[in-house]
Structure prediction request, 397 residues.
Amino acid sequence: KILYKLKEEYSIIIQNIIDSLYIKEKIEDAKGYMAKSDRFFYISGWISKSSIDRMDEILSKYEGILTVYKNGKDSVGLVPPTKLKNNSLFKPFETLIKMYGIPSYNELDPTPFLSLSYMFLFGAMFGDLGQGFVLLLGGIMLAKAMGNKVFGGLISRLGLSSMIFGTLYGAVFGFENVIPALLIRPFENINTILISAVAIGIALILISYIYGMVNSIKRKDVENGLFGKEGLAGFLFYLCLLTLAGGKFLNKNILPMGIGILIIILSIAFMIFKEPLANLIIGRRPLHSEDISGYYIESIFSIVETLLSMLSGTVSFIRVGAFALTHVGLFIAFETIGKLIGTTAGNIIVLVIGNIIIIGLEGLIVFIQGLRLQYYELFSRYYEGEGREFKSINIRE
Prediction:
């Protein structure tokens, strides 16, 4: 009772003291951006364009303040920070972006593309209406009850994707005889699932090439944008290889062999001579920034590395189909064990334990594998992530 009485009497005072200390801490942070003379204080910092009008409104209340705004692009020697702005659907996925690196000021924010592709890949590998619903509820509870809105939001969105694919696969808590499959049953169409997984990977890789070329344009990087292995030359090289291989596989003449080989040879030549060609276009001399023989030896070996990375990156997406099959196969294993027990109660217990293991263990593995595909097979083609995050000084935060 005494403690409760003291709390009632002094809680407001203590809270005011804490707030005052917090404000002073923020003021000390702001002093790091200040300089002073005998008559003036000077403060320099970054502000988002959308906040300029609000800043002018606040400063107009005081006399003797001179404000100068300068475009970040025109600031010589200064690299503007990056402020990520995404809608509520994509916001939780910013955490996955930050784990890799913050996009530069002159680089596209990869969050929307990562969000949609990652949800798609996770759902394709972990498609189950019932198990996805558990993930959705778990994410909502994590966000509401425990206050972890970022991770909770991430899990709930992945759970929703799993539910959608579970409906397409006709799977509910591993059972495939409860609801009809709206699209396909993975275990009954193994070849189709594996081929589709590779086709999805090819589509995502092509989109990542386009992202990479747009980023090169934004950076005004002629060398890598036009002639680099992640630029236009690499894109044409990869596209022609796919077209010729697809034509052989389908036994159709999609692209004439002569034209395809010519484009491939030209693409290889552009990638080998990318530095002198780029310097020739922009008028930079000398054409080579290093020893000429060493440059060309390295360029030729890089073509081999590029070819291998294209092949391995494409085939790597077959894991999406493999995990879709594994997801079904793992439940069948638990279902078989339950039937071997011979009792209804034992069968139910095994199936419940099996679902818990699948949701926890396989869900984690699929989460990691989806992230691996994003980081290694897609980000490596279009994303550098060498920027720094914009962090505001705000006493309300």
Q: What stands out?
A: The chain has 14 helices and two strands.
